[in-house]
Specification:
The structure is a single chain. The protein is mainly β and 396 residues long. The chain contains 4 helices and 18 strands. The protein has a 16-stranded antiparallel beta barrel. A two-stranded antiparallel sheet has the order 2-17. α2 runs antiparallel to α3.
């Protein structure tokens, strides 16, 4: 969970049996797009307004306790405080698991742990462990909480000249989304996934798959029942999707990363598909490269996400009594839109093995996206946003 974070080492207390670690980010963010509120992901309840300095988007703090309770058993507990969907800083337990490893190849865990599908990073929370100020908003912005309460198993073996690792996991996850009208949505889901890694020298290739099943939502089912009985073929199709006992989203991520000598680079492709209008249907891409010179690492990245499907219409007549239904169907789709792209330039300065300073500028073109709060008048069209961020990451 952040062992090996760019060489950082924790301070041990009394014995090696118990270790206590801390990490965090203090970030200042501003941007120039009037009527837009920038946020790190859709799980943040409010964002940074134009031409104002704000520390909410990228700041967080966390503590972690590890305990070796027996020769092959470890216990880990981690808590993080950050802005959540309700707009407050309530601490959250992000890791709490028992780990069993009978040998060097097999690891079993039970409890709360992360998806851990992020290449060249210990987790999204530990900013010190990755190069940029934040995980790409375009690529990861629809992911809020990435923890699972369940079990996982990983197995590593030598295959040819490199190492092959397979990991499978399953359990209950939780999700939260903050909406532009000031409300928020949260719920639980059943998640199963797997990652396949192959590492050879400084190269790592990864394929990761995830399936998330949400329980039946009474409000969506009621809406679906109405649409299915409306007599309009487009509305019937949408209604039948919403009536289902489960809503399912599936994701695939392919990645290639290089981390050797002064060069660090990665290519990522993501694909998310959902079986109803209430879930995301996007393709995403990210390319990033940095080159270290002494204690300084300038980097460049490009990321893009695009909705595969246009906004679907119910086909219902715009009668006064039907306008709330038409608006709700539109809003369900708007809440999961993510068509935008960004070019980012930045530099990381490693002050020590525990501190790193980062400065980054993002040039973002927004076409149809709910990743940020759009407070502009309706139908304002595409816009460009320049985001400036300065941050300090630390571990101890």
């Amino acid at each position: 969970m952040f062992i090996g974070a760019s060489g950082a080492r924790a301070q041990d207390f009394e014995t090696d049996r118990f270790t206590f670690r801390g990490f965090g980010t203090i970030g200042l963010t501003t941007h120039d797009a009037e009527g837009i509120e920038f946020r790190r992901n859709v799980g943040q309840g409010y964002g940074s307004e134009a031409n104002e300095l704000d520390f909410h988007a990228d700041s967080l703090a966390g503590l972690q306790l590890n305990s070796r309770i027996a020769a092959r058993f470890d216990l880990a507990l981690q808590g993080v405080t950050r802005i959540n969907a309700e707009g407050n800083w309530t601490p959250r337990v992000t890791q709490a698991f028992l780990r069993y490893s009978p040998d060097e190849s097999l690891v079993l865990r039970a409890g709360r742990f992360g998806y851990e599908i992020y290449l060249l990073a210990e987790s999204r929370q530990v900013g010190y462990s990755y190069l940029a100020v934040r995980p790409s908003q375009d690529f990861y912005g629809l992911v809020t909480n990435d923890e699972v309460d369940g079990i996982d198993a990983s197995w590593t073996t030598r295959l040819g000249p490199g190492l092959f690792k397979v990991r499978v996991f399953g359990g209950e996850g939780s999700d939260e989304t903050a909406l532009h009208d000031g409300t928020s949505w949260s719920g639980s889901s059943d998640a199963v996934g797997a990652t396949l890694d192959y590492t050879w020298r400084s190269l790592t290739a990864r394929a990761a798959a995830l399936e998330v099943r949400y329980g039946a939502n009474a409000d969506l089912r009621e809406l679906g029942t109405f649409l299915a009985s409306s007599g309009s073929p487009p509305a019937i199709d949408i209604g039948e999707e919403l009536i289902g006992s489960e809503q399912v989203s599936r994701g695939l991520q392919l990645g290639l990363a290089y981390d050797g000598g002064p060069l660090q680079a990665q290519l990522l492709y993501g694909h998310i598909i959902s079986d109803s209008i209430a879930g995301p249907n996007v393709n995403a891409f990210q390319a990033q490269a940095g080159y270290r010179v002494g204690d300084w690492t300038p980097y460049l990245s490009f990321a893009k996400s695009r909705d595969r499907n246009p906004i679907r219409s119910t086909g219902l007549p715009e009668l006064p009594e039907l306008l709330p239904v038409i608006g709700t169907v539109r809003e369900l789709q708007d809440n999961m839109r993510a068509t935008q792209h960004s070019t980012s330039l930045g530099v990381r300065w490693d002050l020590s093995s525990h501190w790193a300073f980062k400065a980054q500028v993002d040039f973002t073109d927004i076409h149809d996206s709910a990743l940020n709060f759009d407070r502009r008048p309706a139908n304002s069209g595409d816009t460009r946003m320049t985001v400036l961020t300065a941050a300090v990451d630390f571990v101890f």
